[in-house]
């Protein structure tokens, strides 16, 4: 019995997610409909990412929060501009 507990504890401890610095985040691509729903739900319920993610198929609360932070944070403004420029096919460094 004690052996099973140790094994379960070891499995739980090794499966914990590692924290990743926000500078290493990848952009979350949402469809236009998903983005619209996130904005409308945020207006209604605020930062309750679990509730919002529950309305989107196959999305986790962490993804929705990361999308929101990256979309509204000044820290990511440069990355957003570079990404948008890349999508438009512009190779200009400015």
UniProtKB/TrEMBL annotation:
Domain (Myb-like) ranges: 26-74
CDD domains: SANT
DNA-binding recorded as keyword: yes
SUPFAM superfamilies: Homeodomain-like
Location relative to the cell: Nucleus
Gene Ontology CC annotations of this record: nucleus
Keywords attached to this entry: DNA-binding, Nucleus
Protein name per its UniProtKB record: Myb-like domain-containing protein
Organism: Spirodela intermedia (Intermediate duckweed)
Taxonomic classification: Eukaryota, Viridiplantae, Streptophyta, Embryophyta, Tracheophyta
């Amino acid at each position: 019995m004690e052996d099973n507990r140790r094994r379960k504890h070891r499995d739980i401890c090794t499966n914990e997610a590692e924290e990743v610095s926000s500078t290493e985040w990848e952009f979350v691509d949402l469809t236009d409909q998903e983005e619209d729903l996130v904005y409308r739900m945020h207006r209604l319920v605020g930062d309750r990412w679990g509730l919002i993610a529950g309305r989107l198929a196959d999305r986790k609360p962490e993804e929705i929060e990361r999308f929101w932070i990256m979309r509204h944070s000044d820290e990511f403004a440069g990355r957003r501009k570079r990404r948008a420029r890349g999508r438009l096919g512009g190779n200009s460094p400015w």
